[in-house]
From TrEMBL:
Domain of life of the source: Bacteria
Name of the molecule in the record: Uncharacterized conserved protein, DUF305 family
TM stretches of this protein: 66-84, 111-132, 144-173, 179-201, 254-272, 301-318, 330-352
Polar residues bias: start-end ranges: 367-377
Domain DUF305: 365-471
Keyword annotations from UniProtKB, A to Z: Membrane, Transmembrane, Transmembrane helix
Positions of region (Disordered): 367-387
PANTHER family named among the record's database cross-references: SLL0788 PROTEIN
Source organism per UniProt: Pelagibacterium luteolum
Pfam family, one: DUF305
InterPro entries: DUF305_CopM-like, Ferritin-like
UniProt cross-references to Gene3D superfamilies, sorted A to Z: 1.20.1260.10
Amino acid sequence: MTAQSGHADQNFRHRHDTYWRLPMAVGGALTVGAWSTTAQAHVKWFAPYIVEASPAPLMDTITNGWFWLAIGLVLVFFVATRVFETRPAGEATLSAMDRASDPLWFRLDDFIRAVIGAFFVAIFAVGGVYLTPDLQTPAEWVSWLQLLIAFGVFSKRTMPFSAAGIIILWVLALRDYDLFHLLDYLALGVAVAAYLVLAASSNEEWRKHRFEVLRWGVAIALMWSSLEKFAYPEWFYPLVAEKPFLTFGMPRDVFIPMAGVAEFTMGFGLLWTPLVRRLSAVALFIIFNAAVYPFGRIDLVGHALIMAIIVAIAADHTRELHFLPAIRRAVAGVPVALGAVIFIFVTGYWGLHLTLYGADSGPRSQITDMTTHTPNAENPHGQTAEPFVNSPEAMAAFMATMDTMHGPMMEGMQHPDPDIAFMQGMIPHHQGAIDMAEVVLEYGSDREVRALAQHVIDEQQIEIEQMRRWLAIRAGGQL
């Protein structure tokens, strides 16, 4: 399936305030042992990407020492928390958390339904999306269905219809995109719809699982989407370059794998015992909130449902474990289960990609172009022209950019006013950098180089416009 051309009306790149999906992009890093956090957003909302592109070799992650260091630190924290939870002090801590969250716990259904309703009103107002700003659609009727979904969540009689509407939107998005991409949004589709059906049920055996299904949906979505940081680290490079505060001073190639481990393991923590899952929820809530200001209102809209579910998990008083309770209660079950879950998700992610797209998939493959941002001349992040193996052609293209740049740059710098000379010289200089970057996007194949080239294009275009405005004002005598 191919994203329809109507989805290309906006390019959701990292330099824009408008966006969608989590996402997630640079994922929330705990400095993993101490659980100190940084802002997280789904990278797909802010950077161009190609769903069909071949993921990085799994061995790159398996041989990464920072990955294993992060896993070790998380295991220490989880095991220590589980040991503490078995002690009287652990139960006292849970009781204190119960007391603090009592007002929300007793009205938790009202809270979740209000947030679901508000979320669908918000994306109705955004317009042109299915369930998240990353899943674009030109169909106007979709927005009106979202408004009906919002109204339907406030009555038990109509909640199943709202659930059906959500599933319809999820299936339509699946038609326009594909299963591999839509698994990122499991929590926003299937899990929320299942909650509405269970919450409306008169069968108490069903109803008691309504919060649990939300928890599983968010946990699976977080663990699945976190694997982008290992499979496609280059998607995060421009975002990290533009917002270096995200890394807390860590080198990019240290931060990204550790952030991926943090996101994955916190998702895993949501499925564990009461204290582990509630502390994981608190940490995730801090991370998602930290992303609101640097990434803007769209990030808040896109993450609203997930944030609400995380709040519900933190407030959940339930102690009962319905799935594999013996393993989850055992302290030794933590490393065993985490290892099993990592194996399942990693083999599922790389294996499903191999099954759907083949071993030779990539930006230059001959299979259908699976992008959520349709390629265009301004932002060539999808399939480009056929690969060129004749390096003299690339060399000639590079030399042409230098010839085009050199004359106008030297001419511009001859102005007697040094300010004007600087501006007039820098404009062709920047245009030369853009032209060189476009040559790389046409002939190059290295993921990191191509990502950097796109970043150069985006930034240099902004600065060229700034310099042209300044020159226009100066020419008008307003400076």
